[in-house]
Write a structure and sequence with these properties.
Layout: E1 2-5, E2 12-13, E3 16-17, E4 26-28, H1 31-39, E5 43-45, H2 76-112
Antiparallel strand pairs: 1-4, 1-5, 2-3
Length: 125
């Protein structure tokens, strides 16, 4: 399966050797390895450019345009990418909520805090 490497942060990823590859390279990997790299955000699926279509006869004036022949069904890789993005969004939202909770807790703690130490009333005369 063909993929295009979009980022490279290590020479090996989950047992996949990327030492001879650079960002932007097109790699031919097994389906499992390709899906793994795409799901982790290191690559995108790659479709080689299609050869130019043969010229089609001109339609008569006022005739409806031909219907597209490609299916509009999303690919599995696109679906995995969208699910991954949703998970990351939820994680970031949870982290933001956690930060607000920590800030409230710290403000409450500071409001209840008392300074402990010798004062002029506690000193002997």
């Amino acid at each position: 399966m063909l993929i295009r490497l979009t980022r490279k942060l290590a020479e090996r990823v989950d047992g996949i050797d990327l030492s001879r590859s650079r960002e932007g390279d097109v790699l031919d990997l097994s389906r499992h390895d390709a899906h793994l790299l795409v799901a982790e955000g290191w690559a995108v699926s790659y479709e080689p450019p299609a050869p130019p279509a043969p010229p089609q006869p001109q339609a008569a004036a006022g005739a409806p345009p031909p219907e597209p022949t490609e299916s509009a069904a999303p690919s599995t890789i696109d679906h995995v990418g969208r699910v991954r993005a949703q998970i990351e969004r939820r994680y970031l939202e949870q982290q933001e909520e956690r930060r607000i909770e920590d800030r409230i807790r710290e403000e409450l703690h500071d409001a209840r805090a008392r300074i402990v130490g010798p004062t002029s009333q506690d000193e002997p005369a």
